[in-house]
Amino acid sequence: MKKTIAMAALALAVSFGAISCKKKVSDADLQTQATTIVTSNPSASVEVKEGVAHLSGTFPDQASKDAMIKELKAVNGVKDVMDMATIAPATPPVDTTSAVDPVVQKKVQDAVKDFPSVKVEVVNGELTLTGSVSKEQARKIKQSVDALKAGKVNYNYTVK
């Protein structure tokens, strides 16, 4: 009986020894593998400490971040992934339309058609009148344009 117990204890010790002799992957090797994975997103980085990958940086969306975490967890030797990364805020679409209604712009152009030296333009989203006019012409132009209720108009013409 003593021999059986001794043999069982020896077998148990050998099996524990075999498990503990399993080759451990170094953090340096894990860092190399993790860095290779993360290079697909230039605004992200990873650092491996004690077998745990610490992911940081910015991702364009949650799906790409989740995919990166999944790839890191698949690396043999990575115990866990600490997610410290963020999602980039969505950028609103750029409004390329003019702030001035084309109909209003056309009405103002019609109002100053008798003054060929005056040009009607949209500058920085505002209706702007440029050119060279006399005092009397300036007064008539202002009255005509104000009557249209065109909103903000910049009178950048030269009065002689």
TrEMBL record:
Signal peptide interval: 1-20
What is the top-level taxon of the source organism?
Answer: Bacteria
Tell me what this protein is called: Transporter
What Gene3D superfamilies does the record point to?
Answer: 3.40.1520.20
Query: Where is each BON domain found?
Result: 26-89, 103-150
Q: Organism source for this protein?
A: Chryseobacterium piperi
Do you know which PROSITE patterns this protein is assigned to? PROKAR_LIPOPROTEIN (PS51257)
* UniProt-listed InterPro entries: BON_dom (IPR007055)
For this UniProt record, the keywords arranged alphabetically read as follows: Signal
